[in-house]
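ok so dumb question maybe but i'm new to this and my supervisor (M.) told me to 'just get the structure for COBRA C-terminal domain-containing protein' and walked off. so i did the thing. is this what she meant?? sequence i used:
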Amino acid sequence: MSSPPHLSFFLSSTPSYLFTHFQATVTMNNFQIYRHIQNPGWTLGWAWAKKEMIWSMVGAQTTEQGDCSKFKGNVPHCCKKVPTVVDLLPGVPFNQQFSNCCKGGVVGAWGQDPSSAVSQFQVSVGLAGTTNKTVKLPKNFTLLGPGPGYSCGPAKIVPSTFLARKHPSCCVSFSSFYNDTITPCPSCACGCENKKSCADPKILTKKGLNTARKDNAPLLQCTHHMCPVRVHWHVKVKYKDYWRVKIAITNFNYKMNHTLWTLAVQHPNLNNVTQVFSFDYKSVAPYGSINDTGMFYGTKFYNDLLMEAGPSGNVQSEKDQKTFIFKQGWAFPRKVYFNGDECMLPPPDSYPFLPNSARGNLASFWTLSLTILILMFISIW
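this is what came out, is it supposed to look like this??
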């Protein structure tokens, strides 16, 4: 016997500088053995329990925005009490994508291909809350598009076997040569429960700081993100035939060294890596024909040991890649894992963006500059 599609909502509380909100990863698994969801694809709807609204989405979009007139400046993605969500089409900009998204709502049959029998998107919900008592589950789910015979039961909270720890153990920050803005790790990315017991970076040279404590408790450097490890991805420069990225990993834990560390990165251009400096690199192809994931690790006896927090608590490398599309956050990774744990990335709309003059082609700036210099040289002579 076949089973109907199954919806899973994985919620994670995230602080906001404007509204209390949470992020939810919405996963649709089609457990039908021989029946797939074909064009025009699925359409998902629900009703908010309170006054929630969709602040932003990746991997999907709503069909209507609703009345968001009370919001000034930053406008939410959707303010409707009963939103209707559809999948994105293949080929959408990189910063709008999410894992298992962007297939036009088409979901394969589980019995034919389990890897294609899932569809996902992420939604940031505002005006909601940040605790189990204040966050309420949506109501009245409807699944349209697959055809007749599909209905949704009431939402319920179930144990999640995917939650390895309460908070991430690392975060990612971004910067680029074409924008002076540095996109930092999200505030409290790894939780701020240890904010009162963290160590001020001014005491880095204090004697006895790195000695063992009786309670064996971790001691973190005080930061706005409160993460033990930060990965910084800097788009360094663009040459004629390739562009270069600098990767720096910083350890903020005064009580832990990372031996034989690994950094896994998912990026659409990793199949075009031409050279890696200081780190070792190995291509990882989890889906056979798709080569968008790579693993970086330290060179043996050189930098395969990431020291505890302090002057030596970082390792860094540079790598060259072909292709020059920098628009829509394309130059930044989709996912980052340190020692197998997924790191928290900044929200996509905060990535360093191209100046208006450089949206067409970064090379046009240098072409214009060279033209002006030639004209000045001619006018002098």
